[in-house]
């Protein structure tokens, strides 16, 4: 299928945006699926978000992704949102309908679960408790995804206790709050360990947490992808845990966006993941 250039602009808004890997993902699929489209990386400062949405027609976009720091504020400018966006309280994707109305969605949760399931068999983790470190925006999407999937016990530990309490109030008793200084003692029967904090990201200190109490069968997930191998991922691999970094999640959240924009379900190939890893080096 060839899609006319006139109606085939997609892109991303964020601030800053220069280091985003999204253009590479979409350009790869443009070529693979012979889609004649243009990708716009739009650096929109927080105080320009309103005027961006006021002038949105000028970009002739079919849809676009939304990244930090606009995921919550962009909610104010869409006409409709899907259930995941409602529950998570943030959007990462907008589709522009033929009548110019804007539909907001959040595909971070789906991207997370699809990347996990495509890498590991579900029966490794599906009945066991999960420990989630961090209670920020990324954590909210992960909690939604785990609950939707049917996980029955999620242990949530965050440096700031109050934020865990807000999430427990929101998501209910499936969340068990673990005080920050007790997190190391809550690992012995977990099937998944998920770091949603920014600790370990390039330029930041590693996550300061001993994982020696975690079963070796557990999968250790770090939502960070820059660097690909955080200190946490390295320590987990060394002790024999299976691991997953944030790169597949980044790619998998773009799949439903393509379905919404182009009606095409693109493949997540090793070639694409390798290309992104190389770009990060
Ligand atoms: P995001 O949207 O990427 O999740 P965020 O909402 O700012 O970003 O959340 C960042 C998360 O990293 C929070 O859970 C934060 O903990 P606090 O709620 O206590 O701030 C966590 N975080 C950031 N720096 C941290 C540090 N030095 N040690 C432990 N947790 C940290």
* CATH C-level class of the largest domain: Alpha Beta
Structural class: alpha/beta
Rg, please? 19 Å
User: Between the first and last Cα atoms, what is the distance in angstroms?
Assistant: 34 Å
What summary fits the major beta sheet?
6 strands, mixed
SSE sequence, one letter per element: EHEHEEHEEHEHEHEEEHEHHH
The poorly predicted ranges are none
Global mean pLDDT = 95
Strand order of the largest sheet: 2-1-3-5-6-4
The fourth-level CATH homologous superfamily of the largest domain is NAD(P)-binding Rossmann-like Domain
- Report the helical percentage: 25-40%
**Which fold name is given in CATH as the topology of the largest domain?**
Rossmann fold
User: Which molecules are bound besides the chains?
Assistant: 2'-monophosphoadenosine-5'-diphosphate
Protein architecture, described:
The protein is of the alpha/beta class and 281 residues long. The chain has two domains: 99 residues, Leucine Dehydrogenase, chain A, domain 1 (Rossmann fold); 139 residues, Rossmann fold, CATH 3.40.50. Helix content is 33%, strand content 18%. It contains ten helices and twelve strands. The protein has a six-stranded mixed β-sheet with strand order 2-1-3-5-6-4. The protein has a six-stranded parallel β-sheet with strand order 9-8-7-10-11-12, sandwiched between helices. Strand 1, helix 1 and strand 2 form a beta-alpha-beta unit. The longest helix has 13 residues. The chain is globular. The model has no long low-confidence stretch (mean pLDDT 95). 2'-monophosphoadenosine-5'-diphosphate binds next to helix 5.
